[in-house]
Amino acid sequence: MKNKKYLNRELSWLEFNSRVLEQAAPKDTPLLERLKFVSIFSSNLDEFFMVRVAGVMSQIRLDYRERYLSGHRPAEILDLLNRRIRKLVDHEYKLLNKEILPALQKEGVYFYTAASLPEAFTLDIREKFLKKFLMILTPMAVDQARPFPFIPGKTLNILAELSSPEHDQPLYAVVPVPARERFYEISPNNYIYSEELVRIFLKDLFEGYTLEKSCVFRIIRDAELSFDEEEARDLLAAIESELRSRDRGYPVRLEVEKSAAAELVAFLHERFELSDNLTYYTDGPLNVAAFMDFYGMYDNVKLRDARIVPVMPVEFAGRQSTFAIIAAGDRLLNLPYESFSPVEKFIEEASKDPSVLAIKQTLYRTSGNSPIIRSLKRAAQNGKQVTVVVELKARFDEAQNISWAKQLEDAGCHVSYGLVGLKTHCKMTLVVREEARGIKRYVHLSTGNYNDKTARLYTDIGYFSCRNSFAADIAGVFNYLTGYCEPPRRKKVISAPFDLRQFLLDKIAQETRNAQAGLRAEIIAKMNSLVDPDLINALYDASQAGVKIVLIVRGICCLNPGVPRQSENIKVFSIVDRFLEHSRIFYFYNNKNHELYLSSADWMMRNLDRRVEVLFPVEDDGLKKEILRQLDIQRSDNIALWEMLVDGEYRRRRPGKDTKIRSQIAIAEYESERNAIEPIQKTSLKKRKSPFKKREE
To answer: In CATH, what number is assigned to the domain containing residue 622?
Structure first.
C-alpha cells in the first residue's frame, strides 16, 4: 500500500544520495572531483545502513508491523531499499571501473589488484613490504578451539580457505587488513590496494598449508547508541561506555567481492547470521569511501575544481574591533563564500577583552583543532565566566565532543551537557560586555556549526547582532539549558521544542488566509529535510488555497509535489554541488511585509520535538534583500538544481539555450565583487543581465 500524501523518508534519502552519485557522472567534471563524489556516495551509504537500515531491521526483529506514514510496513521498505541500493551500487562501480579509474590511468595514475599487478612490480613489492607485513599481519584460525573472531564494523578482512593432508575438511582463517593505509605506493603514481597487498602475502602466512580460495569482505554494523539518559547518573561516562560497544552492533550489511566463491560466502552468512538479500557483491574495491584519502593526498590542480577562496566581508576587513562593527548594525556572514574568520575573531577578542565579563556558547560539531575551543579556554584562564553547552550525543562526533568537554572543564570553563532527552542543536554565542553606558550583550546565531573546517565546505548563514531583544531571548535559552528555568518566553527568537512548530504553522496559515482573501501569498523555504506531517499538511492546505510555494530541500522530502487538488502550487527543488547546502531560510510574503527567518532547525519531528533549536528574524532590510537575492539565484540554477516530480523522482534542470547559471559559482562571484576584491575566475557564467524578476515591494 502506497500513500500519495507522504513519501517514504528512507526512499527519499536514497534519491538524495543518487543525486550525489550523479555528480560523478558528467565527463566535464574534473576527475578528482568525480572520484570525490563517488567516495561521498559510498560513505553516505555506510552511515545510512548503520543508522536507518539498522532501525528498520530492528523493527522487523521486534515484529513491528505498523505502517509508516507512506503506507509501507518495515519488511516492505527493507525490500524496496535493497532493490534501489543495488541499482545505485551497480552504477557506482560502473562509474568507477569504466570511467574514473581508466581516466586516471590516462593521467598516469594506476591502482592495482594482486591479479592485475605487472610482474615487474611483484619482486619490488616482496622486497619492500614482505618483512614489514609478516610482522603486523595476524591470521586468525577458525576451529573448535578458536571461534570465529569478532569483526569490527567497516574494517577490511580476508577470509582464506586452506587444505592440509592431515585434514579431511576445509580449514578457514580470517586475516584482518591493517587499517593504517588504504593505498600503498609502489612507485610514483602506482598504487596497490591494502587488501591486495595482503593477498600477495597470504601464502606466506600459512606455511605448510595450501591456500585454496580467499575473498575480501567487510561488515557494516548497527551503530546506534542505546542507553537510558534518565537513568544515567553520569551522561559523559554512559556515552563513553556505549561508544566502546558501537562496533559490536548487529550486522546489517555484508560486502564481498563479486568473485568470492559460494562456499566462502555461505561461511560468512552463517557466522554473521545474514541472508543473501543483505549481501552486496562488489565489482571492484570494497570501501570506495576510502578514495577520499587519495583525493586529499594527490596534488594535481588540473584534476580539481578551481578553488573558491572565501572572501573577508568588507565590514570586517579593517582594524576596527568586532564589537564596534556589530554595534553599528546587524551583520551577515554568507558561508563558505565569505570567511569564517569574523566568528573566530569575535570569540578571540572576547577572550582577551578586559571589558568582557562572560561568554556563553553551544557546541554541536567542531573541528579537531578548533581555534574557537582555544579561545574559550583562554577566556576562562583570563578569569571570564565561560559557559559551554556541549552536545555529547552528536552522532559520530561523540568521542570528539567528550574530549572537548574534558579539555574545557580542565581550563576552567563551566560545561553543561544540556537537557535529558533533548539534543542541543542550536548554534549560538552570547558575549556579555561592560561598556560606558552599562552592560551590553552581543550575539552570534547561525544555521551551521562552529566548525572552521566545514565552514569552507557547507553553505550556511551566520548573523551578528547586539539588539537587546535578541540577546534577552538567547540568554533565556541558555538559562533553560544550564539551570532550572521555565521554557524561554519569546520576543524575537523562537525555540524548539516549545513553540517553533506552532510558529511555523501560524506563518503558513497566515499565507493561507491571505490567499483565501484574494491577496498575493508566497512561501519560500530552504532546508536540509522536510518530514514533519503537521507542516506537510499545512503546506498542502496552503497550496489548495492558492499560495505559491517553493521548497529548496537538499535531502529528504516526504511532501509529494504537483498532485492535483493537493499540491499543484508546490514546487520542490534540490541543489547538489561542490558545497553542501546546509542553511535553513524561511520566507513568508505576508501581504508585502516580507518576513524572513533563519534557523538551525529542519522541518522534522526530531528537530521540532526532541532538539533545542532556535529560529530568528532578519529585520535589517539590506540583509533581508541579500538573502532573498541568494534564493532567487538558487531558483534560477540550471546546472546543479534538480526538480522533484510526483512520487519522489527528480529531474535535473538543463540550461538548453539559456545562459548557464550555476548558483554556487554565481553567489561566489557576487560575494567577491560585493566585498570589493578581485573577482574569482569566471567558470560557467558569462556576464549577463540579472535574470531575477524584481520582487514586489
So the answer is: 3.30.870.10
DSSP string, 2-63: --SSB--HHHHHHHHHHHHHHTT--TTS-HHHHHHHHHHHHHHHHHHIIIIIHHHHHHHHTT
Report d(CA 180, CA 290) in Å as an integer: 11
Let me know if 425 is a catalytic residue. Answer: yes
In 3-state terms, the chain is what percent helix, strand and coil (to 5)? 40, 20, 40
Domain assignment present for 625: yes
Same domain, yes or no: 94 and 138: no
Q: Which helix (H) or strand (E) holds 402?
A: helix 398-410
Of the candidates 636, 651, 650, which has an alpha carbon nearest to the alpha carbon of residue 685? 636
Q: Where residue 218 sits, what CATH number does that domain have?
A: 3.30.1840.10
Burial class (CB in 10 A: 0-12, 13-18, 19+), 281: middle
Which of 489, 520, 542 corresponds to the end of one domain?
489
Strand ranges (E), 466-610: 494-496, 522-527, 548-553, 570-575, 580-581, 584-588, 595-599
Distance CA 212, CA 206 (A): 11
**Nine-digit cell string for 427:** 548554534
Helix axis angle for 371-381 and 398-410, nearest 10°, is 20
Alpha-carbon distance of 160 to 571, in angstroms, equals: 54
Domain that holds residue 174: 114-230+250-284
Residue written as grid cell 531583544: 469
- The total number of structural domains in the chain stands at 4
Q: Measured between alpha carbons, how far is residue 353 from residues 373, 524, 585, 671 in Å?
A: 17, 41, 33, 31
Count CB-CB contacts under 10 A for residue 151: 23
Q: Are strands 356-363 and 331-335 parallel, antiparallel or unpaired?
A: unpaired
The 10s digit of each residue's pLDDT in 452-504 is 999 999 999 999 999 999 999 999 999 999 998 887 777 899 999 999 999 99
Is residue 474 in some structural domain?
Answer: yes
Tell me the three state secondary structure of residue 89. Answer: helix
pLDDT tens digit string along 103-144?
999 999 999 999 999 888 888 888 888 878 788 899 999 998
Domain end, chosen from 38, 73, 106, is at 106
One domain for residues 570 and 448: no
Looking at 231-311, list the stretches that DSSP marks H as alpha helix, in order from N- to C-terminal side: 235-244, 262-272, 291-297
- Are 131 and 208 part of one and the same domain? yes
Q: Tell the burial category of 486 from Cβ atoms under 10 Å away from its Cβ (0-12, 13-18, 19+).
A: exposed
Q: Exposed, middle or buried: residue 499 (CB in 10 Å: 0-12, 13-18, 19+)? A: middle
**Catalytic residue (one of 167, 269, 414, 425):** 425
In this structure, are 97 and 130 located in the same domain?
no
Where do we find the cell 554565542?
Answer: 429
Q: At 595, is the secondary structure helix, strand, or coil?
A: strand
Cα 522 from Cα 587, distance rounded (Å) = 8
692 lies in a domain?
A: no
408 and 321 in a single domain? The answer is yes
Q: Identify the burial level of 620 via C-beta atoms within 10 angstroms of its C-beta, where 0-12 means exposed, 13-18 middle and 19 or more buried.
A: middle
Q: Are 433 and 528 found together in one domain? A: no
Q: Which of 336, 612, 304 is nearest to 479 (CA)?
A: 612
Q: Does residue 561 lie within any of the structural domains?
A: yes
Q: Could you tell me if 141 and 213 lie in one domain?
A: yes
Query: Does one domain contain both 526 and 622?
Result: yes
- At 238-281, the pLDDT tens digits run 676 666 666 678 999 999 999 999 999 999 999 999 999 999 99
